[in-house]
Amino acid sequence: MAGVSRRTILATAFAAVLACAAPLSAANAGDMRIAFGDLPGIESIQTLAAIERAKERGVNVELIVLNDEDLAAQAIVGGQADVGIGAPYTLIQKVGVPIRIFAQISTLRFFPVVNSEFYKEWKDLDGQEVAVQARGSGTEAVMLLMAKNHGIKLGNISYVPGSEVRRNALLQGTIKASIVDAANRRALEAEAPGKFIVLPVEDLGASDEALFATADYLKNSAADVDILVEELMKTAREITANPAVAVELRNKYKLLPDLGAEADSEITEYYKETAEAGSLALNGGGADAAKDDFAFFSLAGQIEGDPASLRVDDFWDVSAIDRAVAKLGKK
């Protein structure tokens, strides 16, 4: 696709979705279809627990796993889902997708990892292939920004959904440079000591995962949205105060059963590290998070314009988090 811009590719994809999507009736009051643009893993426990708690409060949530943030956004626009999970800044600005972010879940905590047999430092990746989560994802933004900061140009960027999938590919040698979350970084260090090098990354405060929906849905389903946002804040605050709560929530709601009980210690360690880093959004993000995102995604080349001139309202609807903070108090 040489010479074809990302905007053209994405716009064509969205046009295809809108043209082919079968007409869907609007979700009933109390119904919420959430498009999850990733493979749920340890890092998803907080979100999955919040969804279960929202169900307990009367919101009939259907979780749709799509493994790709682009697909999650397409599902929102095509009427196949109501709420998406991701950080769709590029889509909002460059394609004009009529969606708004309404709550931050967590900030970026990713670790670029390379096979030490082939690469030792950032400059070694000049012209080399790397694997990231998805087009427009935080993982791609981190890699692009680090390449820019180190004066190199990455080669082919392949999209491999799922941090655990990328970890396994690194172990198998099918990819030699990628980016993973904290849990899978620790797993690589434990499973193959000395084989991989974690490249340095400057401190990042931008959104990793956030909730987004159309303006119409946010207006017409405000009560359901408020419940989900409140439960996200509650779980974030509880886990940050006591990371062991993540295991309690996992066991209570039978989350990620395929991992088995042996994953509990890894979950505790992951959320302890996450809590120490302050990665979970205790107050839903809002204007402050948007400004951090503008600075990061602009530097990474995923949104255009002077970050100081970008308007929060063009990307976010903060009304739900304002109501949640008024009800729960600010942390």
TrEMBL record:
Record domain SsuA/THI5-like: where: 55-244
InterPro entries: SsuA/THI5, TAT_signal
Superkingdom, natural source: Bacteria
One GO CC term on file: periplasmic space
Position of the signal peptide: 1-26
Keyword Signal: yes
Record-linked SUPFAM superfamilies: Periplasmic binding protein-like II
Keywords assigned by UniProt, alphabetized: Signal
Family affiliation: Belongs to the bacterial solute-binding protein SsuA/TauA family.
Protein name, per record: SsuA/THI5-like domain-containing protein
Species: Mesorhizobium prunaredense
